[in-house]
Amino acid sequence: MAEKTIFSMTGVTKIVPPQKEILKDIYLSFFYGAKIGVLGINGSGKSTLLKIIAGVDKEFNGEMTYEGHLKICYLPQEPVLDPNKTVRENIEDGLSEQIAFLRENDALLEQLGTVTDDDLLAKIMDRYSFVTEKIEHLDLWNLDRHIERASFALHLPPQDALVGPLSGGEKRRVALATVLLSRPDVLLLDEPTNHLDALSVSWLEQFLRDFQGTVIAVTHDRYFLDNVAGWILELDRGHGYPYQGNYSHFLELRAERLKQEKAKEISHQKLVEEELEWVRSGSKARQKKSKSRLAQFEELCSREFQQRAETQSLYIPPGPRLGQDVIRLENVSYHYSDGKNLMTDLSFTVPPGAIVGIIGPNGAGKSTLFKMIAGKIQPSAGVVHVGQTVKLAYVDQARDHLDDSKTVWEEISDGLDFITVGSYVTPSRAYVWRFNFSGSDQQKRIGSLSGGERNRVHLAKLLRSGGNVLLLDEPTNDLDVETLRALEHALVQFPGVALVISHDRWFLDRIATHVLCFDGEGRVEWFEGNFSEYAEYHQISSNDDKKKRYTKLRDGE
């Protein structure tokens, strides 16, 4: 199937209330085996595009053509699993087709041992040959091993754990493992790196590079796009712009496109000004050509040169003056009642001006550390000291408390025209605007927002207090690349201290002055430098034989 177009999208337009075109006349086709990253600001239609390709969203104008019978697997941002079944049972539900082949193989073998009729035996043999060929092609003899490898690499909960009580991140990882193991022709992945630690992302990158089918991934993880994507599709003001190459190459090509677009816009504006001068002049030359000249002016004025809806900046309100004594941990340990140690004898001092990137596997104790610093829980042993001048602003991962019935402005401002931000009183709409919600966007209902837009609302609400020490738990989840750049700039310019839990390696490289690494086995390491410097120091890579966690994932073991 290599070098063959397997999918085409022709003139696709998607309109959402109130009559907004988020996708405009999209033309798209791709080959079998293509690896495509989809970029665009929050609300630009990235998730909608995946839903349309997956056949989930059928309310659109235009045509789609699939070549032959394609098996498409789709990972949405909020996957639906059966809460009353275990992790293993949910995975097997998603692999029902493969498991059916294995069961049919067993049944056919049993029939071959009992059937004596030659004609029936020949039919059974034909079917048996077909089924075994399928099993060989899909490598289903090793299905249990593949499930074990994916479960370990993605840090899934125990196979017998019920899905209902799992966290949102755990459920997403179960769903991700299921679609990867399904061996489809096309993988549609909406933010696949969310809730994955750095080593899990490295494993996923290698898996997708080795995957022979097509991958279309919406993601904000720029290293992921650099390492996996062969094409970038940018959604900008409803239109689709394809670029061949990875993320770094995309940046160069996109800069050139925007430069050309700016030149056209300047030329267009110059023509408008010249025509306007002629219209105002009341020239005596207005005779036969005057009507056509006026029509040309009206056409120039109405021509679409939309302003790019980029996130120019994000606003982190400054807190009160911060002294030299910030946060200090002395021999801190924390363990659960069952004896499991999250951290043992942890000691470090956060200096003024630091931005600490906190990394490590899910469940290793990163969020627990934040809760101890915030005073929500106490350590099992040791001292957590917070300086007297410290005012915390704690932004956790939970966004469930947002009221879907409220508008963006109502949710952030509590319906007040003036709000207190830190130690200042400011117009609420101006504050909301600083999080890239324009006048019309402020009237959107929370329930209609994309994941990234909800995250910006969440940030705006919880940063209102104006802390001088920020505790940010996975702030990059679902944010588009433009907003990530703005957040990076805001954090670097922030006059206080920030502790940031994140698996986004590019983000940590841009902001971190220190790294705090949890290894998942109770050990925690403090390092001065950003993520790349830390990784180089420890020679971390997905192929590093010293990484014990992934030793048993190698082929042949």
* CATH class annotation of the largest domain: Alpha Beta
Poorly predicted spans: 285-289, 541-557
Query: Into how many domains do the coordinates divide?
Result: 3
Main beta sheet, described?
Answer: 6 strands, mixed
Q: What fold name goes in the CATH topology slot of the largest domain?
A: Rossmann fold
Task: Write out the strand line-up for the largest beta sheet, numbering strands in chain order.
Answer: 5-6-7-3-8-9
Count the strands? 20
Structural class, by secondary structure, is: alpha/beta
Please report which band the strand proportion falls in: under 5%, 5-15%, 15-25%, 25-35%, 35-45% or over 45%: 15-25%
Distance between the termini: 31 Å
Q: Round the mean pLDDT to the nearest integer and report it.
A: 84
The gross shape turns out to be globular
CATH architecture group name of the largest domain: 3-Layer(aba) Sandwich
User: Helical amount among residues, as a percent range?
Assistant: 25-40%
Rounded radius of gyration (Å):
28 Å
Query: Total helix count?
Result: 17
The CATH homologous superfamily of the largest domain = P-loop containing nucleotide triphosphate hydrolases
What would you note in describing this structure?
- The chain has 557 residues and is of the alpha/beta class.
- It has 3 domains: 1-70 and 185-266, Rossmann fold, CATH 3.40.50; 82-181, 3-Layer(aba) Sandwich (Rossmann fold), CATH 3.40.50.300; 327-553, P-loop containing nucleotide triphosphate hydrolases (Rossmann fold).
- It has 17 helices and 20 strands.
- The strands form 5 sheets. It has a 6-stranded mixed sheet, sandwiched between helices. A 6-stranded mixed sheet has the order 14-17-18-12-19-20. Strands 2-1-4 form a 3-stranded antiparallel sheet, with helices on one face.
- Helix 9 packs antiparallel against helix 10.
